[in-house]
Amino acid sequence: MVKIRLARHGRHKRPFYRIVVADSCSPRDGRFIEVLGTYDPLADASGIRVDLTRVAGWLKQGAQTTDTVKQLLKQAGAGAAVPQAS
């Protein structure tokens, strides 16, 4: 299964995340298919940058989002593109 999830980067106590499309079997910071955006939790303003058209394309192909990424996409303005939880 393909998932849209976060991959952690940055140094100790300074996290920085990439929003990536990856196989569910690959490790958190391991191999990925495509980078869709970034998330900086320490930024003053909204630290979410994401390509919403690519996210919508992956969701149409059947990719599943993690709960955290689903919340971030709603904050970024992709509320209509994110499927509701069952």
Give your account of this protein's structure:
With 86 residues, the protein is of the alpha+beta class. It has one domain (2-76): S16 Ribosomal Protein, Chain: A. It contains 2 helices and 5 strands. Strands 4-3-2-1-5 form a 5-stranded mixed sheet. A hairpin with a 2-residue loop joins strand 1 and strand 2 (14-23). The longest helix is centred in the C-terminal third of the chain and has 10 residues, at 67-76. It is globular, with a radius of gyration of 12 Å. The two termini are 17 Å apart. The model has no long low-confidence stretch (mean pLDDT 88).
Overall tally of domains: 1
- Strand residue content: 35-45%
CATH C-level class:
Alpha Beta
Residue-averaged pLDDT, rounded?
Answer: 88
Describe, in short, the structure shown.
The protein is an alpha+beta fold and 86 residues long.
Supply the key terms.
22% helix; 86 residues; single chain; 36% strand; 5-stranded mixed β-sheet; S16 Ribosomal Protein, Chain: A; alpha+beta; 5 strands; 2 helices
